[in-house]
Amino acid sequence: MLDIDQVRERAQDIVVRARAGGADAADAVFAADASLDVSVRLGRLEDVGRSESADLGLRVFVGRRSASVSTSDMSSAALDALVERAVAMAREAPEDAWAGLAPAERLLHGAPPQLDLDDGGEASPESLRDAALATEAAARDVAGVTNSEGGGASASRSIWALATSTGFAGAYATTAYGLSASVVAGEGSAMQRDHAHHAARRRRLLDDPAAIGREAGERAVARVNPGRLASGSMPVVFDPRVGASLLGHLVGAVSGASITRRTSFLLEALGTQVMPVGLSVRDDPHRPHGLRSRPFDGEGLAVSPVAIVEEGMLETWLLDSAAARQLGLEPTGHATRGIGGGPGVSTANLYLDGGHVPVETLLADVGDGVYVTELIGQGVNGVTGDYSRGAAGFRIEGGAIAGPVAEFTIAGNLKDMLLNLTAANDLRFRFGINVPTLRVDGLTVASG
């Protein structure tokens, strides 16, 4: 696998070629990746897979016209042909008044922050096999588990580089490790499945296989023989693993593309209250060994922690350079790039801050309602905020978790849902988006 300097030099080289080939401006991304995946089922090895890839993406500008191309062929002749094709495509593309590279004065200069994202990625197939077997075995050992869909372990290392014709060249490496198990509990029509997984940038930070497996088994057993809910308006409590989706809808609504296209339910909400006072939504690209940490964004801009919502008030849109130009604002350092195409927008390590209610108190205040552990379907309208999704989980009776329930829908409007959030104090940083247990009052629940 190429090292960081080689990957950065590859990105710089194609930009130089593009300028020499007739492009007025250009940027390039280069990604190299190596991964190893092991899967097991019922105590036996099922599959071992290893993959390596190296891909390059080039974007060129001829005036206000642009084109993007990509390749995995790194020969000099192939790169020259790539540049020729990209410049020819750009000359035929429609003009875009907002197109262009990020402002040069906003680019990251100097040494990037050290974020502890790479431990070298050393993992043998045997060690991953043993970890996967231990994870699945712990899940199958839970009383009531009757079958297994398998366990898995993975390790990967990636290097990502960006270079621009305005003088930026940066690269960084990340490693990722994962463990998972998925099992079935119960018999016949009462069978239910559930899973657990954990991912970490450094292997030493990965949860113990026995803990992950046990969680998967206990989740599946708890769901056996679900009942039905009575339909009506009631409080809904979201488990953290599904409550994070509410922040995902918020991010979609405040992204530059949604605002410039006027397709957001929060279109007129900047500077207004969108959550209860006391709650904030923060994004931290500098979190040490965070799953989405990064030293610079997809356009080479410096990044820093930011409050998207502060004490309930919406503080900012999430903008790449093109959207910022269109809105007459500054880019926010949230651009993201793949190998093909231009920048999009994404957050780094996003989390909901300010929850202070113990989970037990939050449930007790509910009285009777429903605790949601699974969301199904995509019934969310990003333009109006209308929300309707299938769900499964548990009854809340007398302020305590009771029996499992399934085949119901929850419906409301995201504007109202965000304004009526109550957050518990059990925030943990385990995913790219992290929230504590959340309660939303007054949602409509309909049994299937």
Automatic annotation (TrEMBL):
Residues 26-90 form the Metalloprotease TldD/E N-terminal domain. Residues 110-129 are annotated as: Disordered. It comes from Sphingomonas mollis. This is TldD/PmbA family protein. The lineage of its organism: Bacteria, Pseudomonadati, Pseudomonadota, Alphaproteobacteria, Sphingomonadales. Belongs to the peptidase U62 family. It comes from the Bacteria. Residues 231-446 form the Metalloprotease TldD/E C-terminal domain. Residues 121-223 form the Metalloprotease TldD/E central domain.
